[in-house]
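Notebook B, p. 112. Complex prediction, attempt 2.
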Amino acid sequence: MEVYLDNSATTKVRPEVLKQMIDIDENFYGNPSSLHRMGFQIEKKIREARKSAARIIKAGDEEIYFTGGGTESNNIALTGHLANVGKMHNANVVTTKIEHPSVYNVLMHFKDKVEVRFAKLDCMGKIDLKNLEKIVDKNTVLVSVMHVNNEIGIVQELGKIAEIVKSKNKVAKIHVDAVQSYGKIIIDVTRTPVDTISFSSHKIHGPKGVGGLFIRSGVRLSPIAFGGGQEKSVRPGTENTPGIIGFGEACNLVYANFNEENQKLNELKKIYAKKLSEEIKDIKINSSLGTDGAPHILNVSFKNIRGEVLVHYLEQSGIYVSTGSACSSRAKNNRILEAINLDREYIGGTIRISLGYFNNFDEVEYVVGNIKQSVDDIRKIMK
Amino acid sequence: MYNIVAASFGEIFLKGKNRGTFENKLIKQIRLALKDFRDITIYKDSGKVFVKTENEDNMDGIIEKIRKVFGIVTISPSIKIEKDPEAIIVKSIELFKYLKDKKAFSTFKVKTTRSDKSFPIKSMEFNAEVGGRILDVFNDVTVDVHNPDIMIYIDIKKGCYISSEKIKTAGGMPVGSCGKALLLLSGGIDSSVAGYMMAKRGIEISALYFHTYPFTSERANEKVRQLKEILEEYCGKIRLFSINIIEVHKAIKKFCREEETTILARRFMMRIAERIAMENNMEMLITGESLGQVASQTMKSMIVIGNAVNMPILKPLVGMDKSEIIERARKIGTYETSILPYDDCCSVFAPDHPLINPKLESILKSESNLNVDELIEKAYSTLEIL
């Protein structure tokens, strides 16, 4: 039996998506920039895909740009916001210490030009809004936050964050890394005044190598690459047509069943949390089971084991999870687990179960049974 | 310019009657090293091995490969030419011009070696004649027999070869000329170097890797496989065995004292290695131990670990400093792979305070709590050839 529970890392492409992609490669392989009919046909399909991606966050079609993935979207947005900030501006950027490397490292790249400020987190890993209000000031040019944390799944209060930032500084831009939340948590850009949002196809059962960037109408980004003007020069280069069309189809599938699907994931997550807590002693559920927890991410720590050993135990039964932190020594640098004050004996024994469309309730017993047996076995050997 | 590589042997000459066998082993290793090249011929001619290529562009690649073959001391990119004095002179002048175009120099020396005594001109005379003809053509150079900027070597064997450089190579003895041994290959820095050093002395190496999956990652196996491939550039084909000793560790954990873990586990490894070596006609074991480097490599630890087997254990790094070993690993090209951060079995089960001076009696006593034969059998049943 194979149970894939690493959907926050990447997901399996849905068959409907794959079918569309094959159709593009077989029948619509033309370049959308070409003048002839085949070029026009594929251009129309891209337009449809853009609509599909836009409506997930209630954006206008013209506000969606296809990119090469989440990392690229973050780079385009952050560099685009910061490239024109002069050294003399005394400017600052506000972010958190738990951002994805494709945000954190871009901001660090600009640290000589702009001061990088880190908002405090509460013991759930959520941004301390009072602290945020304090550190955003008239010199803040950009605030960058991760909507859903990839490790524990905590959901930041985007609406409140945006409200605070804009009330303190009208011209400060807000960037949201929504790679983990796109298609999982409702984002409504007509109500939430953020400026740019990154998202990715392969986290929602679309193909890898394609992502998207929302840029609010009127917001200008300095380009990071130059070329033939595709995607209105935000992301030049011949369009990844099968990727984009596949992504569009994945968006359609998400849109059609948004509530039901995410409710299912949430139920599944709660069942896993409950069963694991019942079956295994000395366990900590690090993810919130409330509305501030993403429906698909369950982060769990077991006392006195090593996460990576548990990963290898489970792979033998065809169960794929990921480690919360690579090993106890590297856990020192795991800011999210530090932020939530996880005990030393637990921190190295952390795994992340992340759910997706293909998971179902029938797997729970098999998975929990295997985790229990593995944890028991590892504890016997390691302690 | 060049169309043939001449390889000179080192110590093989010392081996008297065995020389033929050694030479054949060497040719076999050269052939293996050059298996990716087409249009080459390899042959012996009076104490040297020659690799001729139809494609001059391959020369650099061929040299790069065979400079790693043990048993060769120097290689010379050469020109093969018919054994006609005038043709040799004309070609020597041509080579001289080629060298001068590449790099300016002012003095030279011609050195003829004539193992074919039927060649009509004696070596000394021929040196003078070739040198004179070169001086006729180039008036900005002089002969300096003591400290010349460049050399022109004329080597008259069954064929005739002209060259100018002798590139120093790996040295050592042809792999396979001194027997077979089993290397305990961990994936760290030391054991690869140890394998290299013994292969250099002519040993045909097989390797044995112990892992503790699922306490280690499958990626760690991949790392060892990569190290094996790097070593194979020098050592020829290496058979890589792997054994899972998790059951041994579980038993040690359960029945023995924590500080003895490493010593006890090592004794199991040696026994398993000895068994595999014997079953595959190998006569010695090789480890990367260096005296005093870690707790399990103190003199006392080495005694206790070595006591587990009868087979002799070669420890070529025993007197080397870590920095010397690292330097050697960099030269061989294993260093970067060795330091990839996958857990090997040592790090997961390493005790916090390992014994530095283990006593054989107390280790034997601890071992008596274990069913040694059964555990070895269990481990052995996981044998895989990677």
